[in-house]
């Protein structure tokens, strides 16, 4: 038992250090009652190290293994109508200007009919895929859902400017049908705040009105517990942009945990 405790301690340190929240999971899985059922021992080299009381060596093997296993990309589809602000959102998320090298082309420029991946310097495993706009003459909704390879993503962000549209709802329903997750992002919130100001609305008043419209609008269409974020890609420090980043980071952790859990069976 002391061997297990020591290994857990080593793992705890490693996981904390590498910000991978697997310690609890591995702790639960570690059982000396039935060593063959113990996931970490299936990792090459771990069993041998444990036999030799080399807990530090075993922990090192597990860490190396986890790092390799968790080095999978999380593919996020950025979808929505043309002009909703998809490409601008991707640039803002990556912390670059629309005119910078490697930026997603904006201003209604559909750079390609194929989705294009963009990477974040701080999250090298995360790819944001700039999808074409739904509901254009080239891509009416039904054709879009069939022709754009829509199903292959791990996660979806629907970008919507102004009001909730029929196409936004179609996207949300399709993602829910596929039993995948999405965030609903109301873009161009800076515009709403400015319009609200002219009508003497407070910023809080405007934000809560938009949030209510989005959440209730989606719920009325049968979307369960929609996660709604109000952002401005021109002001990524304001509104829900920082919360969106944090929530996505947690999502990445969940994906990693799922990966390890899949491996352990
Ligand atoms: N005011 C404001 N305009 C935005 C915002 N995001 C995008 N836009 C503008 O909306 C237009 C369409 O944006 P774009 O990213 O090309 O839309 P896409 O077709 O969905 O990729 C561009 O002129 C952008 O500058 C935003 O957060 N605030
Ligand atoms: Mg675009």
From TrEMBL:
<dbReference type="GO" id="GO:0016020">
    <property type="term" value="C:membrane"/>
</dbReference>
<protein>
    <recommendedName>
        <fullName>IRG-type G domain-containing protein</fullName>
    </recommendedName>
</protein>
<comment type="similarity">
    <text>Belongs to the TRAFAC class dynamin-like GTPase superfamily. IRG family.</text>
</comment>
<dbReference type="InterPro" id="IPR027417">
    <property type="entry name" value="P-loop_NTPase"/>
</dbReference>
<dbReference type="InterPro" id="IPR030385">
    <property type="entry name" value="G_IRG_dom"/>
</dbReference>
<dbReference type="InterPro" id="IPR007743">
    <property type="entry name" value="Immunity-related_GTPase-like"/>
</dbReference>
<dbReference type="GO" id="GO:0005525">
    <property type="term" value="F:GTP binding"/>
</dbReference>
<dbReference type="InterPro" id="IPR051515">
    <property type="entry name" value="IRG"/>
</dbReference>
<dbReference type="GO" id="GO:0016787">
    <property type="term" value="F:hydrolase activity"/>
</dbReference>
<keyword id="KW-0342">GTP-binding</keyword>
<keyword id="KW-0547">Nucleotide-binding</keyword>
<dbReference type="Pfam" id="PF05049">
    <property type="entry name" value="IIGP"/>
</dbReference>
<feature type="domain" description="IRG-type G">
    <location>
        <begin position="72"/>
        <end position="251"/>
    </location>
</feature>
<keyword id="KW-0378">Hydrolase</keyword>
């Amino acid at each position: 038992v002391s061997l297990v405790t020591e290994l857990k301690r080593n793992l705890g340190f490693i996981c904390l250090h590498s910000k991978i929240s697997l310690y609890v999971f591995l702790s639960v899985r570690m059982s000396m009652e039935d060593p063959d059922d113990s996931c970490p021992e299936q990792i090459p080299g771990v069993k041998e190290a444990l036999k030799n009381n080399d807990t530090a060596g075993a922990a090192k093997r597990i860490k190396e293994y986890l790092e390799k296993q968790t080095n999978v990309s999380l593919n996020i589809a950025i979808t929505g109508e043309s002009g909703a602000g998809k490409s601008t959102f991707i640039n803002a998320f990556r912390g670059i200007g629309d005119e910078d090298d490697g930026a997603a082309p904006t201003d209604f420029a559909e750079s390609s009919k194929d989705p294009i991946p963009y990477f974040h310097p701080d999250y090298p495993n995360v790819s944001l895929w700039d999808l074409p706009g739904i509901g254009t003459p080239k891509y009416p909704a039904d054709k879009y859902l069939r022709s754009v390879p829509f199903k292959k993503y791990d996660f979806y962000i629907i970008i919507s400017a102004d009001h909730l549209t029929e196409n936004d709802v179609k996207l949300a329903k399709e993602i829910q049908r596929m039993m995948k997750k999405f965030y609903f992002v109301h873009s161009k919130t800076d515009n709403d705040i400015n319009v609200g100001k002219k009508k003497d609305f407070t910023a809080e008043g405007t934000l809560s009105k938009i949030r209510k419209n989005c959440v209730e609008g989606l719920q009325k269409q049968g979307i369960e517990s929609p996660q709604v974020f109000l952002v401005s890609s021109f002001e990524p420090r304001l509104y829900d942009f920082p919360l969106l980043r944090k929530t996505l980071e947690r999502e990445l952790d969940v994906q990693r945990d799922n990966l390890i859990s899949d491996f352990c069976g």
